[in-house]
């Protein structure tokens, strides 16, 4: 399948070098709008959505240069693990080199894979995050299903992605086709999580960005017949 403009950028050698400090704050800042959360506030929001406990096993899908994975690794304790997964070798190289200097580096692992074909057993993770990436995927809803499948019962999923600009109407689709950045309908991601069986699904919006979270239900308790 041909790569979109946005996907080609993600695989370039140049973008990983400027992504975390320039590209992300500038473009996401614009998309979040003047009242949107700062990057630090976004990470606090993310941790709130994932409810991490010491020892948590976390998967960060489409980790890019590892910025979100590192922000999570500080909160899983020494026995916790954060796996950052991405399709781009150049992003993963940056993730590894940046993380080598990081105090919690032993809690981090990075690997190359596609978000739709997650190379993990079902129910392997306590929490899964996917920030600033779902809008780039060719098959975003299959990726959401793959993320839900690797969550343990009771585990939580947190997504940050785009939303359609209400005033732009059909121009949202034109923008998506030209740039490769898909603009999701207001209830599209939320409904997808509900269809996947996640519960307590919440959604918060700021500008052209939405944060959506949900929890995989605990395994239903089998009630035993009284003797
Ligand atoms: C904009 S970066 C997001 C980095 C980080 N999650 C953040 O919040 O800043 C998007 C990443 O998605 C990755 N990506 C795009 N399509 C993917 C796919 N199908 N599977 C895995 N990663 C993908 C790109 O390689 C890129 O590193």
Automatic annotation (TrEMBL):
Keyword terms, alphabetized: Methyltransferase, Transferase
Domain Methyltransferase: 58-155
GO MF assignments: methyltransferase activity
GO biological process: methylation
Species the sequence originates in: Nonomuraea typhae
Pfam families according to UniProt: Methyltransf_25
EC number(s) from the headed UniProt entry: 2.1.1.-
InterPro entries linked to this entry: Methyltransf_25, SAM-dependent_MTases_sf
Name of protein: Class I SAM-dependent methyltransferase
Superkingdom of this protein's organism: Bacteria
PANTHER family attached to this UniProt entry: METHYLTRANSFERASE, OS06G0646000 PROTEIN
């Amino acid at each position: 399948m041909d790569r979109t403009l946005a996907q080609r950028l993600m695989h370039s050698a140049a973008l990983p070098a400027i992504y975390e400090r320039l590209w992300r704050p500038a473009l996401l800042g614009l998309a979040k709008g003047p009242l949107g959360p700062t990057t630090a506030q976004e990470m606090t929001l993310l941790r709130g959505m994932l409810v991490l406990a010491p020892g948590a096993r976390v998967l960060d899908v489409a980790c890019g240069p590892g910025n979100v994975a590192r922000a999570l690794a500080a909160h899983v304790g020494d026995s916790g693990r954060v796996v950052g997964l991405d399709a781009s070798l150049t992003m993963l190289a940056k993730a590894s080199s940046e993380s080598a200097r990081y105090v919690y580096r032993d809690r981090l692992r990075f690997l190359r894979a596609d978000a739709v074909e997650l190379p993990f057993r079902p129910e392997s993770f306590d929490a899964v995050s996917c920030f600033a990436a779902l809008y780039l995927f060719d098959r975003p809803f299959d990726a959401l299903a793959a993320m839900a499948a690797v969550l343990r019962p009771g585990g939580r999923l947190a997504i940050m992605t785009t939303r359609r600009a209400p005033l732009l109407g059909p121009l949202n689709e034109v923008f998506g086709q030209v740039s490769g950045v898909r603009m999701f309908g207001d209830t599209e991601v939320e409904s997808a999580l509900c269809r996947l069986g996640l519960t307590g699904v919440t959604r918060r919006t700021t500008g052209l960005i939405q944060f959506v979270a949900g929890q995989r239900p605990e395994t239903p308790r089998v009630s035993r017949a009284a003797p």
